[in-house]
Design a protein that fits this description.
globular, eight-stranded mixed β-sheet, 2 helices, 8 strands
Length: 188
Amino acid sequence: MAILKFRVYFEEDDSVYRDIAIRHKQHFADLQQAILKAYEFDSKHAATFFRSNDSWQRGREISLEKYDKTYVVEPLLMADTPIGTEIFDPNQKFIFLYDFVRNWTFLVELINVSKEENPKISYPATVRVEGIAPSQYGTKGLVGDKLAEMEEKYDLQTGAEGFGTEGGDDDSPEDEFGAEEESSEEEI
């Protein structure tokens, strides 16, 4: 059974992405749930995929359900459409649109096809995470793993070279030459 690996970019920042591995016989509804889980979004809103090309133009729609709008061509339904039936290119692209009010847009690109299934993985699975996901509702606090990721990425634990310890030990304020600071009362 073929395993498809998709790279799912957050449209606003291509350094934020998730790699998702999924069986080619699984449906777009499974891929949608995997994307939402990978980005820590809920699944309460409307969603649709668009088949796309190298210029990220929207093509045939693969929708969660048929929405109350006019369609040029009837949409395919996510629950009824196996992913493998919509792969026409070795670098096939899709656009995933979630929550039509907030218009969360993700660019989905096929990056690998493998014939070997990993028996240790339950498909679909997030196999790589890069960058901090946007917050679906408002702002997220940097806690736990996310703070550790930021500390590691930007080396926040170590002091930056060339910077002092301002606001540190106030017992004996000294300037950089070792002399005690004098307070000047005659400032104009």
